[in-house]
Amino acid sequence: MSFNSHPVVAIESPTHSISPEFEIMKGPPYNELGRTADGDSPRPPLVLITDDHEDTRLLFRTILAMHGCLVIEAANGEEAVQLAEKERPDLILMDSFLPRLDGVGATRRIRQMNGGRRPSIVFISGRAEPDFQAIALDAGCDEFLVKPLSIALLDTVLEKHLGKPLGTSKYHSHLDS
Q1: What are 95-120's pLDDT values in tens digits?
Q2: Which of 5, 26, 102, 149 has the smallest number of Cβ neighbours within 10 A?
Q3: DSSP code of 24?
Q4: pLDDT digits over 151-166, tens only?
Q5: How far apart are CA 139 and CA 150, in angstroms?
Q6: 0.85 cut: is pTM over it?
Q7: What are the E-state strand segments in the chain?
Q8: Which residues pair with 91 in a beta bridge?
């Protein structure tokens, strides 16, 4: 399936290259307030996807790109902390089981950072136990979702945490079936 006919907005992670079927569209530089040099154009929402599975990052990257989000990616918890500090994303999608530093530890470190805006952190895990959910929420995540997720639920969560309607994905029926 090719997505070349759909606009994709992405930022490359220092350690990750985007699949060849994605066209990287680099917009103008944005300042710390999320505005272009002319001061008028707001930056699209910046989302950090943190997951050690490439196929999961590809799915989230595709959905986020269809909504016009800028995307950065981390394949482990340490990289997520570094990118969160450097890039100041609006939203972080955080997996639970990650190499180097798990999702709970990465969430705690991100919450301990000083300065800048506080990103929403949505924890996404295959573990549904209430005790594990409590640990993730205590670490500082804003919401806990259990895999597998529907595209409709992900759309709702994106709209909730990014603070504006992003539009309904045209691909619900295809991806949710």
Answers
A1: 999 999 999 999 999 999 976 678 99
A2: 5
A3: P
A4: 899 999 999 999 866 6
A5: 25
A6: no
A7: 46-50, 70-74, 91-95, 120-125, 143-146
A8: 47, 120
